[in-house]
Amino acid sequence: MAIKVPGKRYGKRLQHSKVFGHGVHGKHGGNADVLITPLVDMFVIIVLFLIANFSATGEVLMMTKDIQLPEAVNVKEVEMHPVVMVSGEEVTISGTVVGRVPDLVKEEYLNIPALEEKLRDMKKQFEDLHSMAEGNTNAFKGDVNIQAHKDVEFSIIKRVMFSCASAGYNNINFATLQKGEAGAEPPTAAATP
């Protein structure tokens, strides 16, 4: 049996390779193998970073150019509830137009029937969905967010609030911008109870 020099021993498969074995030294191939494991690890870290930095609830309020929110000092964070948007032209909920403001100013009713019907449908869907779940602890609380333009007449806001209360949404929050102090960061969306 021959005496071998001490050192690393490679298997038969790698013994004649250019990198590990005693094959041709000094010549490296032009193609490098891509290592998949570090690549997958890097993408997992990027995904976790993005999940950690973005809010899990997503956007609660849709900021549109038609609605300029009023400013408030005492605010709390906006929570995920149905959003009734009142611009200078129309009243919408979940992207559905339920009334036009010029028509609502002319009417004598205190409620907005289309808004009330849509809110009742949403309440029924919530109750049906949560009644099927076992051990449900989420009772219907009746929370709604109103996102209204700062120059809309109070009579329209009063009709929206009455329609919400008639449909069972008694906890009404108004979307506002947090009023910043001099040199503070820019205003953020918030709710005032």
Structural overview:
With 193 residues, this protein is α/β, with parallel strands linked by helices. It has a domain at 71-133 and 141-192. Helix content is 32%, strand content 17%. It is built from five helices and seven strands; from the N terminus they run ααββββααβαββ. Strands 1, 2, 3, 4, 5, 6 and 7 form a seven-stranded mixed beta sheet that branches. A hairpin with a 2-residue loop joins strand 3 (90-93) and strand 4. The N and C termini lie far apart (90 Å). The model is unreliable at 182-188 (pLDDT under 50). It is a single-pass membrane protein; Single-pass type II membrane protein. Residues 105-132 form a coiled coil. Belongs to the ExbD/TolR family. The chain crosses the membrane at residues 35-56. It is found in: Cell membrane.
In brief, what are we looking at here?
Strands 1, 2, 3, 4, 5, 6 and 7 form a seven-stranded mixed β-sheet that branches. The chain has 193 residues and is an alpha/beta fold. 32% of the residues lie in helices and 17% in strands.
In whole angstroms, how far apart are the ends?
Answer: 90 Å
The backbone outline, from C-alpha atoms, is elongated
Question: Helical percent range?
Answer: 25-40%
Structural class: alpha/beta
Mean pLDDT: 77
Subcellular location: Cell membrane
InterPro entries: ExbD
Coiled coil: 105-132
Keywords: Cell membrane, Coiled coil, Membrane, Protein transport, Transmembrane, Transmembrane helix, Transport
